[in-house]
Design brief:
The chain has 3 helices and 6 strands. 14% of the residues are buried.
Length: 140
């Protein structure tokens, strides 16, 4: 993605629209009608990591049938209230080996997730993984 192609427009109050190519993202500093900039950042890290995990597991021939990520941010109390820590709870469904799923999550955060690697280096990161085995006999 070429970031030169993004234009943010003020829509009044603390509401904005970000336009690029044929996509529009609504942003609301009060989170009344759309996510705040910080919420969008946290969503972006979660989505980036989820994409990595899906790609890694599919390349590893795992039978992934579902993936969701719950994301939470811990912020500094005083302005500028930057994000001090992130927590991601991955829930993966399918006939997936737990060790391979854990490795996929670790690889995303250690090597591949460009959004995470673009953030503050002193930010704490936590994650968990829940695996639902949908195979008849399970993994041995």
């Amino acid at each position: 993605m070429n970031t030169d192609g993004i234009q943010v427009r003020w829509d009044g109050g603390l509401k904005f629209s970000a336009d690029r190519a044929d996509h529009e993202t609504r942003i609301d500093g009060d989170e009344g009608i759309a996510p705040s900039p910080v919420a969008l950042m946290v969503e972006s890290v979660a989505a980036c990591a989820a994409i990595d995990v899906v790609v890694i597991l599919q390349k590893g021939r795992q039978e992934l049938t579902g993936l969701s990520v719950r994301a939470r941010a811990r912020r500094a109390e005083a302005a500028p209230r930057y994000v001090k820590g992130l927590r991601f709870d991955f829930h993966i469904s399918g006939n997936v080996d737990e060790a391979k799923a854990r490795r996929a999550v670790m690889l995303s955060f250690e090597r591949y997730c460009s959004v995470y690697h673009s953030l503050r280096q002193d930010m704490e990161l936590e994650w968990t993984l829940t695996l639902d085995d949908e195979s008849a006999g399970g993994q041995d």
